[in-house]
Amino acid sequence: ELKVEQNPLFLSMQEGKNYTIYCNYSTTSDRLYWYRQDPGKSLESLFVLLSNGAVKQEGRLMASLDTKARLSTLHITAAVHDLSATYFCAGGNNAGNMLTFGGGTRLMVKP
Amino acid sequence: NAGVMQNPRHLVRRRGQEARLRCSPMKGHSHVYWYRQLPEEGLKFMVYLQKENIIDESGMPKERFSAEFPKEGPSILRIQQVVRGDSAAYFCASSPLGLATQETQYFGPGTRLLVL
User: Which residues lie below 8 Å from residue A56, measured CB to CB, with a gap of 6+?
Assistant: First the structure.
């Protein structure tokens, strides 16, 4: 059974700073997803990472995947207030039926 | 192209009542997934359906919960005899071909169920 753990669970950072959110998963999963959720809203797809060494970037966010270490990272560069949200990583199971989500990282970017 | 639609967005029920949550997938999507999110937690998979078929219901509680995706109309998640512990946000997601093809899932706005 795939298990996904994120850390940190809460992150308060100043605007302009860099930080990384970590996502570890327990068994083989050949794809890793990152989502963003604003309070009271649905999930917005950010990245889909499909292979070892995959790196994707969108604006101030960059995601990477290391399947050997079973680790994905979401790096935030020069944070701005608009990035305040909860970020979830999720692994796809090999049967393709479901996503298994981490507990989420609540990010607060302070001016 | 409208996104995934869910209704109602908010639903209040008293203990013992029934709750019916509806989900219309994105146009062209034939795979529907239901997830439950408890406060301050991540989403937990409940059930995966294709038209007229339940493919995987390993995340569904054994009692009181059922789901369907008929040939015509939206997918329905039904909770009978609701209890306070059922209070949560229920999200529906859809994809065109299923996760096995490495497609992402597109999420609806959710239904927030409150059981009094």
Answer: A47, A48, A49, A62, A63, A64
Q: Which residue, chain included where needed, has tokens 């219309």?
A: B24
Residues of chain B with pLDDT under 70: 1, 98-103
Contact A84, A106 (CB under 8 A): no
Does residue A81 surpass a pLDDT of 70? yes
Which residue's entry shows tokens 């990272």? A73
| Cβ-Cβ contacts under 8 Å, A88 against chain B | 42-43
Can you tell me which residue has the tokens 């005899």?
A: B81
Chain A residue with minimal CA distance to B110?
Answer: A42
- Mean pLDDT in chain A? 91
What is the number of other CB atoms lying within 10 angstroms of the CB of residue A28?
Answer: 11
- Number of A to B CB contacts under 8 A, please give it: 69
